[in-house]
Design a protein that fits this description.
By secondary structure, the protein is an alpha/beta fold. It contains 13 helices and 20 strands. It has three domains: 1-42, no CATH class; 93-177, Alpha-Beta Plaits (2-Layer Sandwich); 182-471, Peptidase S8/S53 domain (Rossmann fold, 3-Layer(aba) Sandwich). The chain has helices spanning 2-11, 14-30, 80-84, 119-128, 157-163, 198-201, 206-211, 252-262, 293-305, 321-332, 405-422, 428-438, 458-464; strands at residues 57-59, 65-67, 93-94, 104-113, 131-139, 144-151, 170-181, 184-188, 218-223, 237-242, 275-280, 283-285, 288-292, 310-313, 315-316, 336-340, 360-365, 381-386, 390-394, 398-403. The longest helix is centred in the C-terminal third of the chain and has 18 residues, at 405-422. The protein starts with a helix and ends in a 17-residue tail after the last helix.
Amino acid sequence: MANADSRLRRALPPTLAALLLMVFVVPSLGEPGGEGHGGAPMFFAPPPAPAASTSAPTTDEGGATTPSSTSPARRKVISPQAKRASPTPPVARAYPPRPGETRFRPAEILVEFAPSVARQNIDLILRRHRLTEAEAAPIVLLATTMHLWRIGDARGVASVVRELRTEPLIASVQPNYLYTLQQDAGAAAAAAAAPQYALEKLRIDDSTRALATGDKVLVAVVDTAIDETHPDLAGVVAASFDSIRGAILTRTHGTSIAGAIAAHGRIQGVAPKARILSVRAFDTTESGAQGVTFSILKGIDWAAQSQARIVNMSFAGPQDPAMHRLLGAAFDKGVILIAAAGNAGHKSPPLFPAADEKVIAVTATDADDRLFANANVGPYVAVAAPGVDVLLPVPGGAYELEIGTSVSGANVSGVAALVLEHRPGLRPAAFRNLLIRTAKPLGAGGHDIELGAGLVDAFRAVSESENSASRGGPPAAVPVQ
């Protein structure tokens, strides 16, 4: 019967063939013993009306209509909304700030283009959207150029980011996020009179010094400028990079963080023979010492190209797509990334970069191993280190007792320098595993959301570093290129 149906359709015009099939063929399909489904009656819709033409319009995702290559019997209905929709798809990475997020520069955005985009096309987009370019900087780790654009009118950042979604030449666009340093104001102290408990808590004594001092390991300090004239920091800074430019208004925080890592005078840092790559990405503002995505990206990128093995980030802020990508690229290059867990308290959401999966988040404890009262908590906290009333250098040859997860993060950066002197090829993931495995538990057992794996044990970490690769860490890497 199927062959007869086929011959009938080929021999007659479509309309006449359909009518004859209804009269002669369909009844036989429903009869017992016919070619139906077990003799059950079959129901067929009326034959479709012949198409007015051999091509009917279709609609793509942008609402544009194109003729079809087939011959459907009915036209596809196109809504007025679809006809008005823009045929240009949004750019792949457009990141407006999250609802309620205010930690960004109110008139600035960061924009990336594919390397092949000509400068004249970039200028056309600037004019079309009434924007100006303040600076453009190559970011080698990301193989891109980051453009800092400014909004000269009352439009908000979120509005402009969404507006730029329709520019197909733009690869990414986002706010220029704000970050703050994670150290509370300290009290002045004399080096001889103040207690210096941090090294003892970290188990850094003559036995540890006999194993490692951080000799020649490069640690990048992304922070304020550093007072290189402080006696305890003489010769510590190997190179400097200013990603902000302009007058230097403060050196306090950077000086203290460099001292926690590598001081070698009246007080001793964790790794007194380490070398510091000073990255000025923060300075004083009306809201305190702050930095932004753009300056931090430039600074970390410079540090990686300058062969930094460790990047200390004693600052915190919001989730940031560009920062996440850069940290991932640095991690893949073999750079150990260490950050302050944050000083916003137990109720704070996770702060970044500490909460990034590639970063070791460090919280702060006091001389009695108690958690710093204002420390952030969460499963992203990896380990704890001294960070309450730690004696550190400040500009002018002076000293202060400093408080915060900034300090504890710097102490762990010093421990990383000790381990890398002993095992220079250690990968970031292997170092993290080593640090967690050798820490002294302070909580009830297991990983604690307040204290992580516990208090860092520098002596044990250095002693066991030879076995780290065979205990779950990836193989050793070549140095950063």
